[in-house]
Amino acid sequence: MSDLITKSAADLAGAISTGNVSAVEVAQAHLDRISAVDDRVHAFLHVDAEGALAAAKAVDAKRAAGETLGPLAGVPLGLKDVMCMQGIPTTCGSKMLEGWRPPYDATVTKRLKDAGVVILGKTNMDEFAMGSSTEHSAYGPTRNPWDLERIPGGSGGGSSACLAAYEAPLAIGTDTGGSIRQPAAVTGTVGVKPTYGAVSRYGLIALASSLDQAGPCARTVLDTALLHSVIAGHDPHDSTSLTDAVPNVVAAAGTRDLSGMRIGVVKELGGEGYQAGVRQRFDEAVTVLTQLGAEIVEVSCPHFDYALAAYYLILPSECSSNLAKFDGMRYGLRAGDDGESSVEQVMARTRAAGFGEEVTRRIILGTYALSAGYYDAFYGSAQKIRTLIQRDFNDAFAKVDVLVSPTAPTTAFKLGEKLDDPLAMYLNDIATIPANLAGTPGMSLPIGLAPEDNLPVGMQIMAPARADERLYAVGGALEAALLAQWGAPLLSQAVSL
Hints:
Elements: H1 9-18, H2 23-41, E1 44-47, H3 49-64, E2 76-80, H4 107-114, E3 118-123, H5 157-164, E4 170-174, H6 181-187, E5 190-193, E6 214-218, H7 221-231, H8 249-252, E7 262-266, H9 276-291, E8 295-299, H10 307-322, H11 343-354, H12 357-370, H13 376-397, E9 402-406, H14 422-426, H15 433-438, E10 442-449, E11 456-462, H16 468-486
Parallel strand pairs: 2-3, 2-4, 7-8, 7-9
Antiparallel strand pairs: 1-3, 4-6, 5-6, 5-10, 9-11, 10-11
Helix pairs in contact: 2-3, 10-12, 10-13
């Protein structure tokens, strides 16, 4: 295994900018790693080796010409298959879009290219981002590099797995109810859901427009911050895009002293239903935060108990609307068109052939919740709960600077274990959903291995809207303290592929 693939993104960028290694060498090392292990991990749906090497050559040419390179120029990245990339297959993990090649780049994709980031390819995901295990991909599941019989989280399991398998040092995910943070937790990596609107959604194939948020994934807090700074910022193509200046998350990631910081432990996000080892590692991490100077306060957010139910009415309602455009008429799959069938028959056959079981389930649920006789009872009531959850966050942040909880109630479960029990699968998002309903930012970072199964545990940090830098301050300090305890990165303990 090449030493290049184990280096951080920051170290790789530094080595490329000084000429100690070429961007082409770095890209080739990661492409070789993908060739060696991805038949077992299945983190990627499409590898663009030609495009990646061309982008790397362009970075090397700029360095040779004396141009100033960006902070991540030449560093490889895996792009979740929900982001459009011009000319490259973008399927959303669905047969509905099999073979579709977008005619344009998403804003996130364009910013990555402009920064000289080398995009290796598109990562696997639950179909249309609906799932918590990446088992709902139409192209087969991704496996967790810690244990190939376990899930890597979802819906962005491909992005988290490519990091843990050393196939890429950076990745892009999207988070609708925890799809960046939960995969990070179960793979021992770092993932951030920025404040809603801080990263453009233009070119992100929508699941639930009021919840979806693209964000950075990496193996360290600093690398995540560097990637955050590249993709964030106002975009006139996105009507929900914030006009705020990008917060200095890179500087915040270097924080080591948390004196004066008030950290709230959320009472409702723990206890019954949480694996004993997850609670143990979480409590130990809270103790480390106190040693760093933080004041710990227990905080109650009573309406968080209703977040899961509200979310699984709001999300299906929005997805039933957003996915209506996949009708076999304009682009993507077209099935059952025998020249004699009606438009309605072709639409029905196309959707039956193109959508998987979980997508179909949520579309039906959302359509029902939005129907005239049930709108107020279901969707309307869920939106009222959403408002109460936002008030819980406001009340909590009047008392503390950030909130913390376990990211997920358990470590990675086995493939197939919850596939036939949708409600059990949905419970994996119980701790991450509130931040999406409120639009607040959240981070997951590794805090150790659960003693029962020796698998990664993640801590979630949540901050007020537009205060993303607080995530990086707390996360950076905690990561440094834990690394000093462990003596080596947590991923060094993963089973070697």
